[in-house]
Amino acid sequence: MEKHVLCILCKNKSYKIYLGDKFDIYKCNFCSLGFLSPMPTDKFLKDFYSKNYFVKSDGEFGYLNYMQMESSLKQESLRKISFMKKYTKGLSNLLDVGSGTGEFALNAKGANFRAEVLDTSSWAINEAKKRKLVGYVSDMSPKTLPKKKYEILTAWDVVEHFKNPKDAFLSLNKLLKTNGLVFLTTPNTDSYDAKILGKNWYGFKKIPEHVLYFNSNSLSYLANETGFELVVIKNWGFVRSLAFISDKLGKYNKYLAKTSMK
What pTM value is reported for the model? Predict the structure, then answer.
């Protein structure tokens, strides 16, 4: 008899959609979030996102050489910046969450954004600082966040790495000024290729790097639970969706600012 696993977001019953050697993936019956079971330990993830993740010497995860992808990363960054500018008139103060070594932030600065960077990898942030970027090492827990607020947050292919989605999104909201904006991309479990490829889908090939699996329903539910409004979601290639979400009139910013002073 298959065991019941409760959703890590809404605590409703979930069912298994992927059976792996060491990790399985469950999907919630209620909010549609997919999540890894068991979750990797914090120590495992800290070791995982070391220099070897960005400049790979062995293993199947990470990048062969992140620093040598400048041309393709710039092209993708400029495409994202073009999309963002439809919504960011008059705003410029930006934090790139899950920044890696800072390629997007450098291109954002070139487009007249005042961009800073945040990543869980101390190696990546040290590399970003060498490129004259202001950077922060953070695991998204409140005590490790920058002591300032931003008008815009970007999180490109990041949210699928969060072990605790609700806490992480509350931290995103805490980093925002009132009525701030968030732009993100994440693999979409309802994408065309996910439905066609099944277990061979790209998103499932990133276990245990990816611990969460979103579609529009789960992303909308998470946004609503953490004080955001999902404004628009669109396909961003075959694999990913790009979402633009905004703070609900500063509701959670005010709440978190008040409680953080206790």
Answer: 0.84
